[in-house]
Amino acid sequence: MEKMGLIVLLVFYYVDPNDLCHQRGTFANAFAKHEEHLQDNIGNVQMWKVALTRIGDLAGWDLKEKNFWMHDLRQKIGQEIVLRESPKEPGRHSRLWLYEDVHHVLKNNNTLDELKLIDLSESQNLIETLDLSGAPNLKHLILRGCTRLSYIHASLGNLKQLIRLDLNGGKCLKSLPNKIGLDALEFFNLGGCSRLKKFPEIVGNMSRLSKLYLNETSIKDLPISVEHLTSLRNCNPKLWTYGFEMPGGEIPKWFSHQNVGPSLKLQVPLDLFCDKLIGIIVCVAYVFRQHLPLHKLEIQYMGFFKFTHRLWCFVIANEYQYTTWGILLIEEFGNIESNHLWLEYYPFQYFGEDWIEELNQVDVNGFSHILVGFESTSPGMEFTKCGAHLVYEQDIDDLKQMARGNSCNITPYEDDLDNLANVTKVKRSRDEFDWDGAGPSGQVAG
Description:
Keywords: Leucine-rich repeat, Repeat
Domain TIR: 2-77
Structural class: alpha/beta
Strand order of the largest sheet: 3-4-5-6-8-10
Shape: elongated
Domain C-JID: 246-396
InterPro entries: C-JID, Disease_R_plants, LRR_dom_sf, TIR_dom, Toll_tir_struct_dom_sf
Number of domains: 3
Strand content: 15-25%
Number of helices: 9
Radius of gyration: 31 Å
């Protein structure tokens, strides 16, 4: 190996390196048998002993009593190889994963033509990224779980070779560079960046991007330039849900189906499917009747979000149920005292093909049935009222038409919610059927 200039990295599987080095235990027994049976080649046996002694002195990994998975091992071996390339010059490494090395090479404006990967995941003290213009061939930038990261240097937007950009869990990140031209980008994860409100403008060609994650962000709309992201597979706007919470205890009047309590039923005539029925808006009013003392609250985690209460919606088409993720609430810093409304829009495609197929099954009277209900893990939470409203393709067209003349379509005041009927034009008498088929009704039995 020395003559060939190769690096030897050892892995000891259930072997004590000291036994190997000093020929103890099973190794001593094995050599005793070899010496007994190979008297004519005793010189070779001695050479083996010398070689194993040298091997035992090499650095390696002992997996005798450690929970060490193969992918961890491969990573360790890879890191060792990189470190041995230039142990005193991190600027010549192809990969950087130690914060002090990243800070050193970027702060000193080193030219990092060989740098391909930076991984600083879970770096809780990372607040901002430095200038990356000196690393033009960077392919992977992984900053998962950097919960204090708040600033991304503008140079990030010009990394033409970047393939993977992972900022998942950056809950303090409020903005990205205004423009990005990441021509080679294939994977972009902003999930969990809850304070991020704006997606950057796309400059140039980013047609390779196939995976874009925007879950649990505050991004409400996307720039027109996203039309250039022609390879996206998992960022279909038709699958997006839209919703909000606000103080209030009354379901807006434009909800065609309303009920007291946590659930209601709708029956949909078959002819409505011919009118391009595309989704449903659900709404629930809830209040906390009792509050646990702070020291008794169980703080839970979903990804990087803390919560003490969770409520969700389930939607059943005939007998096929889909349960949504719902919303997370936290009372760590104070009680939620007043009544609140949660309103959410779900496109039917969000529920999946099986759910839609079940919805298309009708009873002998030509009706399909939908049950909407709300549940919670919180014993002190009570659902006082709920509502549902069917949405048609024409409603969306009307809304887009009206939106061109309005800077804001939804106002944060309960009284103004009733005005949405004038904007979306969704008051359709033909979907106002009660469960018993008695005719138009605003109230449906739960």
